[in-house]
């Protein structure tokens, strides 16, 4: 008598509406983390996303899980923007500028929770995404520097700080009302990174290691 081989059941794929709800939650959380910080109540995130509280908790059982998803989603899209910029064969500094503006559109300020003392900075997903962003951005800067277009006294940390600060709306204002100023002020900042340098910068260039201290 032969024993029937048990069938292996595939895990069901998430429904399209469930995926859309998850994306809405992450988008709403990203905006609210930028505006109000990572401690914004889940109720407010659910309201902005247009879903119920239970939907938020079903997707993200705790705050760290949601913050991690937001940060990883921001960095994943930022990686794609950097890869696109590196694939371009035209002006090296203009490619760097396009990357910086794309990073600002992704609310790179949402990375700020990574430096929180209560946040798991060593999570493998975060480490991998962070390394990819850093590597690609440094390549863009090195290419612009080799072309004589980027001043010698700036590093990746300077770029990240500038983009993060300029993509964060002033206290008390929403993302929408600040959007019209972001790219104007970011371009002013980027112009200051062009070579030849017009002035001597105080202090020293901000490196990746400086940001992690």
From TrEMBL:
UniProt keyword list: DNA-binding, Transcription, Transcription regulation
Pfam families, A to Z: TetR_C_43, TetR_N
Domain HTH tetR-type: 19-78
Gene3D superfamilies, sorted: Tetracycline Repressor, domain 2
Residues of the DNA-binding region: 41-60
Protein name: TetR/AcrR family transcriptional regulator
Organism of this sequence: Streptomyces tendae
């Amino acid at each position: 008598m032969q024993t029937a081989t048990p069938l292996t059941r595939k895990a069901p794929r998430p429904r399209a509406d469930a995926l859309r709800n998850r994306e809405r939650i992450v988008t709403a959380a990203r905006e609210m983390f930028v505006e109000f910080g990572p401690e914004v109540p889940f109720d407010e995130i659910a309201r902005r996303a247009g879903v119920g509280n239970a939907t938020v908790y079903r997707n993200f059982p705790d705050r760290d899980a949601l913050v991690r998803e937001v940060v990883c989603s921001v960095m994943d899209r930022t990686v794609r923007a950097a890869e696109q910029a590196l694939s371009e064969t035209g002006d090296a500094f203009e490619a760097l500028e396009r990357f910086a503006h794309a990073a600002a559109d992704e609310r790179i300020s949402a990375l700020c929770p990574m430096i929180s003392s209560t946040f798991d900075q060593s999570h493998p997903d975060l480490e991998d995404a962070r390394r990819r962003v850093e590597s690609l951005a440094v390549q863009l800067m090195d290419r612009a520097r080799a072309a004589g277009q980027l001043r010698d006294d700036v590093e990746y940390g300077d770029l990240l700080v500038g983009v993060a600060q300029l993509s964060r709306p002033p206290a008390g204002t929403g993302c929408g009302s600040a959007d019209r100023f972001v790219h104007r002020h970011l371009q002013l900042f980027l112009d200051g990174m062009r070579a030849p340098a017009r002035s001597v910068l105080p202090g020293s260039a901000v490196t990746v290691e400086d940001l992690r201290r």
